[in-house]
TrEMBL record, chain A:
Protein name as it appears in the record: Pimeloyl-CoA dehydrogenase small subunit
Gene3D superfamilies hit by this protein: Acyl-CoA dehydrogenase/oxidase, N-terminal domain (1.10.540.10), Butyryl-CoA Dehydrogenase, subunit A, domain 2 (2.40.110.10), Butyryl-CoA Dehydrogenase, subunit A, domain 3 (1.20.140.10)
Cofactors: FAD
Chain ranges of the Acyl-CoA oxidase/dehydrogenase middle domain: 122-210
Protein's organism: Vreelandella lutescens
Family: Belongs to the acyl-CoA dehydrogenase family.
Domain of life: Bacteria
Domain Acyl-CoA dehydrogenase/oxidase N-terminal: 6-118
Lineage: Bacteria, Pseudomonadati, Pseudomonadota, Gammaproteobacteria, Oceanospirillales
Keywords: FAD, Flavoprotein, Oxidoreductase
The Acyl-CoA dehydrogenase/oxidase C-terminal domain, residue ranges: 228-369
From TrEMBL, chain B:
Name of the protein described by the UniProt record: Acyl-CoA dehydrogenase
Entry keywords, A to Z: FAD, Flavoprotein, Oxidoreductase
Domain Acyl-CoA dehydrogenase/oxidase N-terminal: start-end pairs: 6-119
Homology family: Belongs to the acyl-CoA dehydrogenase family.
Domain Acyl-CoA oxidase/dehydrogenase middle: 125-219
Cofactor(s) named in the record: FAD
Species the sequence originates in: Vreelandella lutescens
Domain of life (superkingdom): Bacteria
Domain Acyl-CoA dehydrogenase/oxidase C-terminal as annotated: residue spans: 231-394
Length: 372, 397
């Protein structure tokens, strides 16, 4: 049992904390969000120099072999600054799926440049009709005339507009789930891009008789690998939410100490003190769950998914609680675009909609309750 | 980071398990399992067994006769004891006054009292709260006036847990009424046989006699029974409270109670199906399970910090608040799980030796325990006090 970070991990944490504090101030973040997406941003190039793009990948796929704790450190730092880079959705998740199921030629074509920061990818697993279920989808793929043909629609695909290619899941005639790599500008593919409520780039992808060469099929049975990638994504999101919760709590506490009403700082009112403590309790309990998730990634799939579902459900509810309290304790100011904590509040509420919400994950826990 | 116990720690857990399987008398285990009240003899019997094993004073250093365990071993021991339905060790001597005597007491006091605690010769109780001083402990008014080589003590203590069995009491008294609130307090040890001490039971809403009022009427306490300097009582009290709050999350008990709840709700039937499959009920059990998972990791974080040289601080307030809330929720669900069978109340069964049909025996304690567990968010510093501590010490508000 050990909660301490290694020396390397502590250095990573310090470097990232400094980087985020220096380069992602509210003004810089606004500018980054408004900048047109053209290739790698300066910050992404810094990520590449720091080795962040290699960190979560195993050494035999050219990575640095980082574990769940390393991913947690990175995501938490990104969450603290609400850093507008698609580290998880554009790199970690599609990259891991490639690492798990692509052959060496496919990895060379798509994974190596990803790790070098030359392009980003996207993972299209979600469909409105299946809600948060990655496996009960309707997009179909079948072979015709020595090619694969894909038909269907993928919804709320994160980082879609910036992706050189998108990994698309589809039902195969075998009854298994397959995954395909669909380069941008492939004929028959239509993109509709937008930003999410919490300002992340996303889009919907329509596949209308999309023909793909055989080598664009990465796997004809991707279920286990996809479950592993979703587990990693959920653990990473929990860590990111912890970072955002920390900042939301810090900013709220600072505001309570500085803002005066009735001649006294708000921090002297006991009802507000106890609310602030409740936020802190939610944060610390959620941090424990995020640690549980980060350290569960290498467990057998059932146990891993049980613990990560528990963590994601727990963090989802805490994140919303903290967001709502942060707005309330900031009073009218918390309602404004100008107030930075409002942006954290938006992310912390919408966090629950990424990779399955608390209801979805509570059901997973509930189904496995007796076995636990 | 990793959350797994080392092979040595796992071996230790096995050793504790084997010991409990061999040494815990089945009558005691059944009494605890069914939630029946323990009699004084029951406590002493179990504590003698632990003492013989050298495991009674789990928190003590080796030089005073403790097993020399670290925080991780103590946690494992507590968890296994709760899982095995072992009686809880009465904490007032071994876990509360003993650390104060070790830290602030004279060599004579240490040599006299510590061995008597180790071999269960003395049963200690706590003279802290007063009718006018609950959460505001430093507002106590029990007065001790020096008269030669004795203090003459007058006042009233309350919520004195298991004081009816005690022969010794540690007591906070005001020795200087003119000093600042905290500065005028001293820490005295009293023999309960001293003339002028009267113990009266307080019957709690679950019908139990657990707590008492203690009246002090011109009680003569020798000066050598003061621990530390005069006016140093508050320092002793604060030191003791940090010890009191360590392990106050009651995690082992919460785990055991949740296991019991799941098993009970799987047996109880609702329209021909187990109650546990009723969505609204199951949802609350799932939420309790999640809270327990989070609390367990938080507890391990605090234990690991203590192992690596940290002092239990305000994090224990966090554990106390969330741990007590969780245990209360589990006791609520356990009572609900029984349905109409939660209504009959059998105090003779809970308090005495009477037998009861099995259909009632298994759930007889649930409603009483639900009411009893309301104390968890009140004692040891009410949860609202804990929140104020966190606000002040962690958040600097």
């Amino acid at each position: 049992m050990d909660f301490a970070l290694t020396d390397e991990q502590r250095m990573l944490e310090e470097t990232l904390t400094r980087l985020v504090a220096d380069q992602v101030t509210p003004e810089q973040r606004r500018a980054m969000l408004e900048a047109p997406a053209q290739g790698a941003s300066p910050l992404w190039r810094t990520f590449a120099e720091l080795g962040l793009l290699h960190m979560p990948f195993s050494e035999d796929t050219g990575g640095l072999g980082g574990d769940g704790t390393d991913v947690m450190i990175i995501m938490q730092a990104l969450g603290r600054g609400l850093v507008p880079e698609a580290y998880l959705f554009g790199l970690v998740m599609p990259g891991q799926l490639l690492a798990l199921c692509a052959n060496s030629a496919q990895q060379e074509r798509w994974l190596d440049p990803l790790l070098e920061g030359e392009h980003q990818l996207a993972l299209a697993w979600q469909e409105h009709t299946a809600r948060y279920d990655a496996f009960g989808i309707s997009t179909q793929a079948s072979q015709q005339d020595g090619q694969w043909q894909l038909n269907g629609r993928k919804d709320v695909v994160m980082n879609l507009g910036s992706a050189a290619a998108t990994l698309v899941t589809a039902q195969l005639p075998t009854g298994k789930l397959g995954v395909f790599i669909v380069p941008a500008n492939t004929q028959g593919v239509t993109l509709q891009t937008y930003r999410t409520m919490d300002e992340q780039p996303a889009g919907d992808l329509t596949l209308n008789s999309v023909a793909l060469p055989l080598e664009n099929c990465l796997s004809e049975d991707v279920s286990d690998a996809l479950a592993e990638v979703l587990a990693l994504g959920r653990a990473a999101l929990c860590a990111e939410a912890i970072g955002a919760m920390e900042t939301a709590c810090d900013q709220t506490l600072a505001y309570l100490k500085e803002r005066k009403q009735f001649g006294l700082p708000l921090a002297t009112f006991q009802s507000l003190q106890h609310r602030m403590v409740d936020m802190h309790l939610h944060l610390e309990q959620s941090r424990s769950m995020a640690i549980l998730a980060a350290t569960s990634l290498s467990l057998p799939a059932d146990e891993r998914d049980y613990k990560i579902a528990a963590a994601k459900a727990y963090c989802g509810e805490s994140a919303r609680f903290i967001a709502e309290q942060a707005i309330q304790l900031h009073g009218g100011m918390g309602m404004t675009e100008e107030c930075y904590v409002a942006h954290y509040a938006k992310h912390l509420v919408m966090f629950d909609h990424y990779l399955g919400d608390s209801d979805y994950h509570l059901e997973t826990v509930s189904e496995q309750l007796d076995a636990a | 980071m990793n959350l797994t116990f080392s092979p040595e720690e796992q071996a230790f857990r096995e050793e504790v398990r084997r010991f409990l399987a061999d040494a815990l008398p089945s009558e005691l285990r059944e009494r605890v399992r069914l939630g029946r009240h323990l009699r004084a003899d029951d406590h002493i019997r179990w504590q003698n067994i632990l003492s013989d094993q050298g495991w009674l004073a789990a928190n003590w250093p080796v030089e005073h006769g403790g097993p020399g365990w670290g925080p991780v071993q103590r946690h494992i021991f507590d968890e296994e004891c709760a899982a095995a339905h072992a009686p809880t060790v009465v904490p007032f001597g071994v876990n509360m006054v003993a650390p104060v005597i070790m830290k602030f007491g004279s060599v004579e006091q240490q040599q006299h009292y510590l061995p008597r605690i180790l071999n269960n010769q003395d049963w200690w109780c706590q003279g802290y709260s007063e009718p006018g001083a609950g959460s505001d402990l430093a507002g106590l008014s029990t007065r001790a006036v020096l008269d030669g080589d004795h203090y003459i003590v007058n006042g009233q203590k309350t919520w004195t847990t298991l004081g009816q069995h005690a022969n010794m009491m540690f007591c906070l008294v005001r020795t200087d009424p003119n000093a600042k609130k905290q500065a005028g307090i001293s820490f005295l040890l009293m023999d309960m046989q001293t003339p002028g001490i009267t113990v009266r039971p307080i019957i709690t809403l679950d019908g139990a006699h657990e707590v008492n009022e203690v009246f002090l009427d011109n009680v003569r306490v020798p000066v050598e029974n003061r621990v530390g300097e005069e006016g140093q009582g508050w320092t002793c009290a604060k030191f003791l409270l940090t010890h009191e709050r360590t392990g106050i999350a009651g995690l082992g008990h919460a785990k055991q109670a949740l296991r019991h709840l799941k098993s009970l709700a799987s047996r109880m039937q609702h329209r021909g199906k187990p109650l546990l499959s009723l969505p609204s009920f199951r949802q609350r059990v799932v939420k309790a399970e999640l809270e327990l998972m989070a609390l367990e990791v938080t507890n391990l974080r605090v234990i690991a910090a203590a192992r690596d040289g940290g002092v239990p601080g305000a994090e224990s307030s966090l554990l106390k608040v969330r741990g007590s809330e969780l245990r209360q929720e589990i006791s609520e669900l356990t009572r609900r799980a029984l349905g109409p069978a939660a209504l009959p109340f059998f105090p003779e069964f809970l308090q005495g030796d009477e037998s009861l049909d099995d259909e009632y025996a298994q759930g007889a304690a649930a409603s009483a325990q639900y009411f009893n567990r309301r104390k968890l968010s009140i004692y040891g510093g009410a949860n609202e006090i804990q929140k104020s501590i966190v606000a002040k010490t962690i958040l600097g508000m």
